[in-house]
Amino acid sequence: MLLIKGGEIFDADSSLLKQSDILVSDDGLIADKGCNLEGGPGTEVFNADGLAVVPGLIDMHVHLREPGFIHKEDIHSGLAAAAAGGFTAVMAMPNTSPVCDNGAIVRYMYDKAAGANGARLMVCGSISKGLQGKELSLMGEMAQAGAVAVSDDGRTVMSAELMRLAFQYAGRFDLPVITHCLDENLAANGAMHLSPVSLRLGLRGIPGSAEDIIVARDILLAEEANARLHIAHISTRRSAEMVRQAIRQGCRVTAEVTPHHLTLTDEAVEGYDTATKVSPPLRSDIDRLAMIKALNDSTIGVIATDHAPHAVEEKMVEYDLAPFGLIGLETALPVLLTALVHSGAVPLERLLKAMSAGPAAALGVTGGRLSVGLPADITVIDLNEEHIIEPSVFLSKARNTPFAGWKVKGRAVATIVGGKVVFRR
Ligand SMILES: [Zn+2]
Ligand SMILES: [Zn+2]
Fold this sequence. Notes:
Helix content is 29%, strand content 23%. The protein is of the alpha/beta class. Strands 1, 2, 3, 4, 5, 16, 17 and 18 form an eight-stranded mixed β-sheet that branches. Strands 6-7-8-9-10-13-14-15 form an eight-stranded parallel β-sheet. The chain is globular, with a radius of gyration of 20 Å. It starts with a strand and ends with a strand. One zinc ion is lined by residues 61, 63, 93, 153-154, 306, 308. One zinc ion binds next to loops.
């Protein structure tokens, strides 16, 4: 038994922080919740005085790079980094080598994760074979092996006809379709957001319309198929407005935003730090503020990091040549608490929901609640602990973060998965 004592519990049902204890049974379930709980003999007591005890954080968009690119990250290092960031579950995207487009790769990934000490793994299969955008993947086989969604993330399925089929086919297995929305012709060779900043820096720009056009297309296709659509890393004002309208009209659409699109703009590219090169690119401040507004009014129900590790030497090249992506698992919570919650831009409850109940609902998996009988996936947070972000101590293999040196307030101090403390600071 594990007794978490004296913490401020965030309960999605009441949306309030209130003092309560949580008792976890030996089989890893929440056995009881309330004041002044006592465990039996041999109970391990976790003193959570002054700490927030919240439903385990879920990151539904990470790249763990295994199989194929384990010099960047692997399943074990990625799940350990997730736990260190306070995440109890993450979903791995399929752009590995080989691509996760069949049941055997899905099973391989779950087998690898079984030996890891960290967050739970969920696997996302691909929409198209080899991410080629030509032929659908073996979705039924992947669903049977435990895949919880499909996506060609990293690529956009440019054929509207294939996307139409994907929505119909994925719907038969109740898999949400997750789309990385960037028209590949409009975005071709772009390195950053098309704006006065890109003109000044002499970098080729990616217009906001490259995203908006595909968001519009996918909403139309999903609506027609009555399928579940989840839009990955939304980043523009117009796209957020389209999702808002679609939800109003009863379309089954959800959307996620990254910590970096909530906190940084294209101005961060000044200085050519390749850690700021990300897809979709960091947008204008008008777009960033629209993301915060959409998060606050629940148009955007999910925050996901799009953790995209690269080796140091891969990012130490000219901006134009650097690969897209930045890492987020170990910085998301401190950065968001500091820049959004402590600043007063987003209520704490809203942030926590977008990092737990929101992704659980978008994927249709358990999570986001601390209810008796559910698995004890719990994150313990010190909301006020001040520190400086120092990439050299990350458990991730990668260091490509634009947040190095940030002075932040608040972070996870313990991560509990199925009743087991998998990370403790
Ligand atoms: Zn993407
Ligand atoms: Zn991604």
